Protein 1
Amino acid sequence: MEGGAKENEASAGIHEPLLLKEPRKPSLQQRLNRAVSTNTTSQLAIVGSNVCPIESLDYEIIENDLFKHDWRSRTRIQICQYIVLKWTLAFLIGLFTGLVGFIINLAVENIAGTKLVITNKFMLEKRYAIAFGVFAGSNLILVTFAAVVCAYISPAAAGSGIPEVKAYLNGIDAPGILSPTTLIVKILGSIGAVSGSLDVGKEGPLVHTGACIASLLGQGGSKRYHLTWKWLRYFKNDRDRRDLITCGSAAGVAAAFRAPVGGVLFALEEVSSWWRSALLWRTFFTAAVVAVVLRALKDFCETGKCGLFGKGGLIMFDVSSVKISYHADDLLPVVILGVIGGLLGSLFNHLLDKILRIYSLVNERGPVFKLILACTISIVTSSCCFGLPWLAQCTPCPKGTMEECPTLGRSGNYKQFQCPDGYYNDLASLVFNTNDDAIRNLFSSGNPNVFRHSSVLMFFGTMYILGLFTYGISVPGGLFIPIIVTGATYGRFVGMLMGLASNLNQGLFAVLGAASFLGGSMRMTVSLCIILLELTNNLLMLPLVMLVLLISKTVADAFNSGVYDQIVHMKGLPYLEAHAEPYMRQLTAGDVVTGPLVTFSGIEKVGNIFFYLKNTNHNGFPVIDEPPISDAPVLCGLVLRSHLLVLLKRKEFLPSRTSSSGDPSQRFTSVDFAKPGSGKGFKLEQIELSAEEMEMYVDLHPFTNTSPYTVVETMSLAKALLLFRQLGLRHLCVVPKSCDRSPIVGILTRHDFMPEHVLGLHPLLKESKWKRLRLRPSMLNSVVRRPSSTQILDL
């Protein structure tokens, strides 16, 4: 990240973000020159698989004269319209997300099912080379399609999308992550990637898809497509979009797992940085709509009108028929599973971080190399899925089983593969199958001897490695299902080792193994617990699932952070954590913001505004009244860049430095200053001003936020961080403690709280961070204070 400083060799490496735009802080003169002569990007991050500039979202209410007039003029009917529209949009988000989730599942089941049926047909005819050609060729075509649309059309659609949604709800706006193009590519790409037998899931992409749907519905209309319904103007702000996208992320989980309550808790625990009770109601309503839609569509498909989409089309691993009875002696293997899950999960995160950094070097070379990487992984995956079953022995079909053996269809526990009649290949039942069917086979509890120990171990090693190397290629795909498959595999293996020594059967051990690996990798507890219970439809497992999740998370937290947190950091997204770093309590807000500011007068010359908008990237400018307008310098508030562009575009200028006498509500409406949708609104290049207009003035008072959030310069940086994050701010003004100075010291932005920036300003804090030294005030004062990027790096 910009302004970052490299850590010492002991702490460097995989813990640093991939993007360190400025490893060294420029001098004061260089910063001043850049502030007035260049227009560089304030922040870069990896979005999808491309490097893009990013900005911060602004959840603060802009209380200027125009806003106050708009609220005073709203009638009771308009307020009711706003409330009804919020619930209507929540309903539409649930409806469309449920439909999209069903379509993705329907397409995957039919495409993958047809591929496996044709391949099995050639296998029964002993035409093994043709069978492999059909299987590998189909996978390669599907993966190539997914990689092409992702690499060439919408790189932001790569990966699961959960880190990007999590960053957005934290206040980070990256280009294209919620655009219509990303939505379409996400849907098509996830169908191709999952149908192409890659070790990825469609659950993460569904969370991203739900967020995209919510964003499009909450755009507030579109002038481009003539969709500017008057009611939609209420949603042209970041606050309402944030709430809708939170509902969309919950709907995505509900559509992926048929887990409405789990979706709400996932949004609360994992992706959302800001929450309130009213939002809880709407997310729950949205998830409930998804559940009803999926249930109706599933009932329709049970009539046989959906092709190969059967009872397993929507992920539901029902183990409710299993009677659960356990005693104190059974808790020991459960504890062991939790420890194993924590160790394997932290190792998975560590290795994935290294692999993603290697992949980033490949992705930097362009779309062609992204395509080559994806095709290589596809060929390797197809070879493993088709080749590994040849290493397993053929097993005689059990007598008296209710299930068909060998299985002639596309799924089942007893796949024949290359075995003669009356025999089945247990490894083929796992690896030569879709991930969803493999999970159902692992969770099954009918026959404890259906799988050999060697087959389960080979499958575990294969899925663990493929999960590491598949995630990160330029296709949409999530981590939920690969982690569940891998965890269920070693859970089943532990159950096989326990045998009759435990009252729990092997299928339940597989469920607990999946829970342990999820907790060890993703570090979620409550939401994962409920999702697994809704998946398996067995409430009696609640105590065991809770225990294994708590143990696995505790063990894994001793080594590293959760997988999504690591990816957010690695991508360079300036995510604000819920807690401050310990060394931030040794600094004050004044220690971070000491640089010169660009300020405007209450009545400012047009030429000055145009000059600073052209030569800086500042998003907010302090407005200060000075004599003779006021007796002493007074901070009037903060005016936004987007509002200044509107004023210049409308050319409502004054011939002299005098206050405007007219009512601004007669010339402007709140819609004129509303945030644009997927577009960028006005650009400075679109504004043409004559030399005469440059000498005129603009009265900024009616358009200035007169009540920006401020902190005194002696407030600790840790306290300022918590205030900044919990209020969802983009700017936090720092005012002096004494009255004989300028009315504003600086502005804290998201960048000023980043560890790379803080440690770059105060190098001695590195020692206190890594060696646990306690800095004395004299040591802190001895550090040369260099002006920060207060506005130069204004996000």
Protein 2
Amino acid sequence: MAECGRADSSSTTHTMDKSITLPPDEIFRNLENAKRFAIDIGGSLTKLAYYSTVQHKVAKVRSFDHLGDPLYEISEQEEVTARLHFIKFENAYIETCLDFIRDHLVNTGTKVIKATGGGAHKFKELIERKLGLKVDKEDEMTCLIRGCNFVLRNIPHEAFVYAKHADSEFRFQTTHPDIFPYLLVNIGSGVSIVKVESEDKFERIGGSSIGGGTFWGLGALLTKTKRFDELLQLASKGQHASVDMLVRDIYGGSYGSLGLTGDLIASSFGKSATADKGFSKEDMAKSLLHMISNDIGQLACLYAKLHNLSRVYFGGFFIRGHPVTMHTITYSINFFTKGEVQALFLRHEGYLGAIGAFLKGAEEDNPNQYSWGENYAGSSGLMSVSPEMNPMQRARSGTFDMLEMDRLERQLVNLPLLQDPSSYIPDTMDLTEDALAREYWLSCFEEALDGVVKRAVASQPDIPEAIERSEKFRQKYRHKLQTLRQQPFAYGSLTVRSLLDTREHCLNEFNFPDPYSKIKQRENDMALRYYQKAVKSLEQLSWEQRQFALVRGVLAGNVFDWGAKAVSDSLRPALLLQGPPHKCALFFVDNSGVDIILGVMPFVRELLSRGTEVVLASNSGPALNDVTNGELQILTERIAAMDPVIQAGLRDDRLTLVQSGSSSPCLDLSRLDKVLAMVVRERQTDLVIIEGMGRALHTNYYARLSCESLKTAVIKNSWLAERLGGKLFSVVFKYEVPPGKPSQEDSSAPSTPS
């Protein structure tokens, strides 16, 4: 990432004043291909959902029949994929939006629009008249639950804990592989408390008439403020202790025998009965907010304990991403459960009803049989606004929020070998919480932008409009980086992985599916010429010399001092091949060229020679210069033609090539191709090898597996090397044995990062 390119400070606010100032086609994207609609209309916000098909370029490789260079041809083909669009806007603009949708609809393939929410009846006639679609109303709670299940299952960083006074306000949670059971506390006008046990089994187990409507109504009477958001603004500036009677106001301090501290509220609005003075609007709004939140929090805690539920999600218009309500609810839950239960909030809470209504209308397509992924290029993110505005200053009126989700080709599941899937966190460093690291990496990606643009254009030399598209990519990704600098929590935990994935999404958005394709092709052709010579050299070495040489080969192509003592010490775990052979090794591979051909393949050859089956897992789609499954299939066939060991491995089904399900330079072991997981189980895999900075260092460095594992990488970034206590081109070679399991050689060698 040596190229420089600083972002400017310009930004766009997604607002409209009875008309849409952001280009409508950037809000209602792919509308001409829309197939199915659903709508959720609340008291103030409308959430529209629709399904579309998106045509985009994909990179394909095809092997040449003849021997020689190039090994394969590269082509870019058009492919159609499914995408879900969710758009949120204020009800005041519903007519303008419906007009735009009507004018751009082409062959929707449906005559019905699924609708939910309290406003569905109110706007029924308007929708039917404008769109010519019959409104089919769906049960609000059913839609809410279905939508909640969908986002929890498909968006890894969907749920978060809110910590107002922490360095990072938003602490995103790892979603348990089994999302059930959970408690959903929906705070609308009143409160509904729902126990969810499965996709279709849920029960309203309680509730209260004291909810968001109570706060709004009483607040309007007390402050003469009619707008809900303005009432919350008042509350955020108030001091509730001016109005509330505290424990210390009664006892002069804490009440130790009952464990009550002096600053606890003894009576909400207690001082108003005896005070001679008036109270400010801000103080009354804050007192009211605490009163409502504490009541809801205590109810939620009692129901959670009664039903033995530890996961409690809060939603509804009372929450809606407002920091002040999330803080008061969090405080209440922490107090009443003494920290045993956490208040969990959802990034896309506002879309749940629309998502659920859409899923009800799409049952014949069975969307839940697929895995879906958030498209960062088309999603505005949590509390997305102009970067100049902080969260408490954001103007919600007229703001358009978008969420896009792409249907993935492969169904994704956990790696069966994760020691504890519920506690697995892929990323090594959370940039949301580490301000110094965040600033470094954001600057790094900004400076690399010019180089990425040049590579994108170079990958399509015969297409004149590639330059124009590359500039659009530059603008979009730069804007994403600006947003993440101001709101690092926009897409969940900010990590090196999410920055890389956002860049890949933006490249794909502007039809640059594989900017490194020609570079990879050249490097693969070159490395193949030296394969036989490399294997012959290895065969002439003693067993121990060969093991070290194989490890050096895996790390080939990186410049560092092989003679340094630290490197020699770090490679001691290479002797893991000393004992009885492993039954099956799963190898997550990294780069094309020298890495895969002269590094990984000789290592694979050694494993096969020992009687170990090998599963090579490579990316399903392109990312940087990483080898894809399509490329690896061709490379392996060519290597097999000159190497009888590899040829026999393929012939006897002892060498298997499988897609990982990923199109990222990093690796999330909780979202892998279902076929790969099946192969891992069937082959009784007992060794996992993860290679490269993205997969073994930026992610999975702390991953715990239930079998032996080897994580290997060269640190090619000086800042990261220094942060980890090493030097540029230091080696990470981390061999781990799970507790209670002896290694193959019963080695006492520690896990050794250098």
